[in-house]
Structure formats: C-alpha cells, structure tokens
Amino acid sequence: MKISAATSQFPRYQLQTGDGPVECVPNEVILKMKSPELDTLDESFGGRVVERFSLGSSLRSESGEILRLKLDEGEELASSLRRLAKMPGVEYAVPNHVVRLEAESTRSVSSQPGEGVPDDLHPELWGLHNREKSGADISALEAWKKTTGSHQGPLIAVIDSGADYNHPDLRANIATNPGEIPGDGIDNDGNGVVDDYFGYNAIDDNGDPLDRRGHGTHVTGTIAAVGNNGQGVVGVNWKARILPIKIFNDEGVTTVDAILLGIAYARERGALITSNSWGGANFNPAIFDAFAATPGLHITAAGNDGGDLSRVPAYPANLPLDSILTVGATNKKDEPAVFSNFGRNTVELFAPGRDILSTMPGGKYGVKSGTSMACPHVTGVAGLIASAFPQLTPEQIKDRLIYSTDPLASVSEMSISGGRLNAARALSEDNVAPGAPNDFTVTSQDSRSARFSWTGTGDDGWKNGPATAFEVRVSEQPISEENWSHAESLSTPRGAEIGQFHHALFEQTPQKNVKQIYAGFKAVDEAGNRSSLRTAEATLPATPVAYVDNFDQPRSEWQGTGRWQHVEHPERGRVWSCQPDGPKDGTFARLTSPTFDLTGVEKSFLRFESRQDFDYNNLVYVDISEDGGKRWKRLDRLQDHGVWAPREYDLSEYDGKSIRLQISSETLATKVGEGTVIDNFEILGTKKAPAESAEAF
Predict the structure, then answer these.
(1) pTM for the complete prediction?
(2) What is the domain extent for residue 74?
(3) Is 160 a catalytic site residue?
C-alpha cells in the first residue's frame, strides 16, 4: 500500500528482531535479484511483484533489479524473508522499512526586510552571520563576495517532504522541468510521471511535490531562499536550481519504496547534489544500492540522538559510500548542539543547526532545530562551490567542504574534519598543492599495529602556513596513484606547524601469519589540492595460537545441553550444532567450553566461525566467565546471517586468568531453520617473557 496525504491510518507492522521491534509495511518485501531476467518469483514464494525499480537511468523498468513484493494473505513476514533470501538468484530480501521524520516544533517569525546587501539578511540568520559571537558562523558574507550562486549552476535535489514552490522567497529558485507542460495532464517528457513541472511526489507517485508539513520547505530555504529581494530571508545561495522531491507524506512518514523512487528521480533528472535531512536506525541494502547507483554528492544529516554513529549507526548517514557526506549540528556559541549525533570516522563536518530561521509553507517563516537544519547549510555551500568551479567533480566538492572547515576544539574528536563549515574558505582560489615530506616511514610495528610517522609540510609546497590535513592509506598491495582511492584510510591529525612530527596508527586483529602492510601519504590543503604520493611499508609478525579446536575429533571437551550436539556437517566435518534437525518449538540450550588457562599470556584474542539460520527474534549469546562459570559476562549477541562468518573478541582484560566461554541459544519463535553452527575455535596470544620482547609459545 502506498502512503499518501489522504491516508488517515497508515498500516503498521512491528517485525520482532534481536534488536527489538522494527516498523515496516505489513506483508511487503524489498528484494534484489542477482539477474533482472529471473522472473519466476510470482509462482514460488506466495505473493506477487507489485513494483520494480531500476538502478539505471530510468525511474522504473520492466526488468528492474529491485522488486517490491506483496505477500499473500496468511504468509508470515519473518519466515518469508528467510525463505526468499535462500532462493537461487536472490541477492537479498529485506522488509519495506518505515522511516519517520522526528516530531519537531517551529517558532514563527515575521519577515523583517533590512538594509545593506543582501537586504534580507534577517537578524536571526546567525548561521550565515552571527551577531552574538563573531566568527561562529559559516562566513557567508565573505563567501558572497566570490559568488551568490547561479541559475545556470548545479541541479540540487532536496529529497524531503517536498517544498512550497509558490513561496515568494523560493519560487525563482525552483528548477522547473523544461520537458513538461504544466497542467496539461500529459507525461510530455515520457519519464513516467505526469506534470512533474516543479519536481516529483514519490509518496503519491505524481508530479506535485507541494510541502504541507514544512520540513522540506525549511530545508530548501536554507539552501536557496532568494537573496536580496527585500523580503523574508536569504539562503546560502541567492540564486540556485532546486529540484523538490517529496518522499514523506504530510504526517512525516515514508517507506523504502518511496525513497527508492525519490533517489531514482534525482538520478534521472541529473542532480549533481542531493540534500537528505532524514534517516533511521535500520540499514536497508536497497537504499545503499540506490545511492551507489546515483552519481553526485549526497549530503546527509547525522541525526538527533546525541550519540556516536561509530557505535550506534543511522542511515543514510552511515552508508559506506564515498559519495555520502554526513553533517552534525552546532549552536550559536560554536559548540556541538546537545542533540547532534557525532562520529570521529563517520561525520565529516559540523554546521549551524540550532535555532535556524528559514522559509515555511504558505509564504511564512519559522525557526527549527536539528541536524536537518545543519545539512542544508552544507548543501548550500556545495552549490556555491559548483557554481564558482563548474569543472569540479562531486569528490572534489566534498574535499573542499571537509578540508576548508574552521577547526573547533569542541568537535575535534567528533568528526573527520574536526571543524565547522566555512563557506568562504571552501571557495578559495588555490591551485598550489602542499609539499610532500621526505621522511614518511614506519617507526614501530608489532603483531597488532604499525605506526607511520612524518614531518608536517606547508600549504603551498613548504610555505604559506601548514597544510590543512594529512591522508594516510594502507593496503596489502603496494600503493600507487592508480589504487590510492581503494586503499583503507587511517585516522590522522589535522595540520599543525610546518616541521612538526605526526603519526598515524594502523591496527589489526591478531593473525596466524606474517602480514605485509603498504602505506601511502598525501598532504591536503583547504581547496582539496593534494601533494605527491609518499609510501612506506611495515611487516607485522604472526601471533602464536594458544589454544585451537576445530571440533573434528570424535570426542570434544566442550559440553552441550539441550539441543547442542557434536555432529557431522556435510561441508566442514564435525561441528557443534544447535537445532540441527529442522524447525522446533521454543528451546533454550547452552554450549560451554573447558577452562582455558591464560597464565603468562598477553594480548589474548578469541576467534571462531559461526552460522545462524533462524527467524529474526531468535537469540544467540556469547558469554565469558573468570570464576569457573558462577557468573557470566556478555561478550556478544550473534545475528541472523545465513552464511558462515568470523567472530572475533579481544580478551586482553583476561590475560593471566582462567576463563570459560559459553554460547547460549534462546529460541523465541516456532520456526528456527537450521539453527546455530559453531566451528574452528581458537585463542591467540603471545607468551609474556621477563625481557622487553615477547616470545612465542
């Protein structure tokens, strides 16, 4: 069922999972085929295909790779997801998640035309020009001396609750569709949408993206409220080409299928930049695929839970794509807003997001707070960059946004850049790359880490102040310019004084074999110019195995209760398996290890392989005890994977102690598939020696 503004009761379904209930559309599945030619699902899975989505240039396709399925009456969603995922030709089968905009308050503000240029720089537009704390803004006045945007500039898609395209402060900056004749009831450009003159409504699948909730209109105004027009407010861009795409209904609700259509429409219309002030806790691979297939720079809000995205992810903010740029929020005092999510390796930068004035539907204006308000500040500056430097790629625009920030001590460990958006610096005219150090080398290495060091260089060669930042990447192959972008990035310090010594640390889990690591280095300036490449390499020694059990011996020292059994597996020899003989009603079982004596062992590390095949609400726990099994401490909860996966745990805090491990299976559903299978258990560690160096067992 499609959500629409006319829908008074949106259907709700709570899918019970190990992480708690997940809201999704009842009896609907989002499924991706490995080959779009496979079209036999209708007869075999108990349902029908109701929609297909293409990852190509068109909005929909008769042979689209991603499908929306409607299950037949009586089909149970959790078991259907598991069954569909196992079908030949299916890449994934996931729920059609529901995503909601957060409830928010808006303070109304009247229009106050002022003096000067622009004449609509309202006193409450502190994010553009902070009158209370000098410098605690994005330096918009300085940026506007270079450019105020362009009606020939990049197409910016605002994927949100739509926009009031009739608002007097927005109308001139809405990019109308030249291939469509408004109001004639005909799909003139043949893209599958009738009268999409002002944009697209993915919720109702029509050409009217009019916003009645206000969220999208507010976001749009921050990006591009018309500048110097004697009324209301001014956006980061005075002139722009905004493409409103409505994915949320008037109650602030959407589903994955509408999100896919919205992203596809932005791709079809050729948007260079998308603004995404929305998100949720559930990863959906279809949304990942849609963004991955859409060229451009996708700017996302970090979210308003006040948490670390490195620990508790949100999406699309945490999508592992180079095209994603995630934004946290600051307040008038240039501090991180208390509600803003953050992440040392997940949030690129911060921008003003507390008490932000912008446009509202009906020609009105209001103040809102959230990372939803920070995101469009960055989107707006991305538009200015693309207008001033039309030759830049989305990757180069992203570089300028990250490396031109104003460093803030308060967010130095909360984001990749360690800073807050600066529009003027992002528009810097700089074509000279920083210098490259001649002393990039490995200065220490052991079985778990390698430290790379270098001397800081200048912004322009070896002069004009220090380089803005440094990049260090590592790979198991020698690094060159050709494979630089594919290597893994390490956390690095920002630039400091020329000649200062810096370090970056590579860390790994213990390995049984010697590992060769290759590293590459580049210095970066605020315009994204990079130095020439420097390389180094490190050799990480193997970690000895303290204990190993592949369970292949007929007798095992492990003890299983309930349905844990030591059995033959058709592919792996003997394994420990729980519920090996198919579906069972609710059960509880434990698999307990013998005692492991870690006396004299340091840097202990546990590794084993497991496979889970059960419904979403079945739970498997990994626990540890250091008192012989009287008290247990939780190490992990294993998720439903359906494939063999490694499990790894640092046990360094138990060095020198005797421990036992326990794997508990608690089945809360009546359908459990093949259950849980465990294989190849081992503990690695080095033997502590009285000398400074450690020796193997």
Answers:
(1) 0.86
(2) 13-99
(3) yes
